[in-house]
Amino acid sequence: GAYPGRALSFVCKKNDLNSPKVLNFPSKPIGLFIRRSIIFRSDSNGEDLEGYAGAGLYDSVPMDEEEKVVLDYTSDPLVVDCNFRLSILSSIAKAGAAVEELYGTPQDIEGVVKDGGIFVVQTRPQM
Questions:
Q1: Interval 59-115: pLDDT, tens
Q2: Strand, helix or coil at 77?
Q3: CA 18 – CA 12 distance, rounded (Å)
Q4: Predicted structure pTM score
Q5: Is residue 65 a contact partner of residue 32, using CB atoms and an 8 Å limit?
Q6: Which of 16, 36, 107, 109 is most open to solvent, judged by the fewest CB atoms within 10 Å of its CB?
Q7: Other beta carbons within 10 Å of 44
Q8: DSSP letters along the chain, please?
Q9: Which burial class, exposed, middle or buried, applies to 93 when counting CB atoms under 10 A from its CB (0-12, 13-18, 19+)?
Q10: Hey, is 119 helix, strand or coil?
């Protein structure tokens, strides 16, 4: 189910968290969607072993069949609204800086943006 393309990505200088620079806009042509369901993973225990960089190497298998949807980014505010994009990306950068400061080392952070809020789901030292 992997399709070519990129996710939105950006960089931001630690001394200027209000000025993120977009590196790539999203370009995946197809999105895979399932109704609210269960996703099975083969094994994720390896991700938690010290010195083991196995994150993302395991299969995720949804219980229900995926629906393939052609993606349209022309109305996505992250793509078309510069002020919205700046606000969200700056908030993500500030959350990342706060987590790194808290743990004292660069972090691999996973999170969610919901209703303009940034929620950290998981963090671990950057390998």
A1: 777 788 889 999 999 999 999 999 999 999 999 999 999 999 999 999 999 999 999
A2: helix
A3: 8
A4: 0.77
A5: no
A6: 36
A7: 13
A8: ---S----EEE--TT-TT--EEEE----SEEEE--S--EEES--GGGGSTT---TT-S-EEESSPPEEEE---TT-HHHH-HHHHHHHHHHHHHHHHHHHHHHTS-EEEEEEEETTEEEEEEEEE--
A9: buried
A10: strand
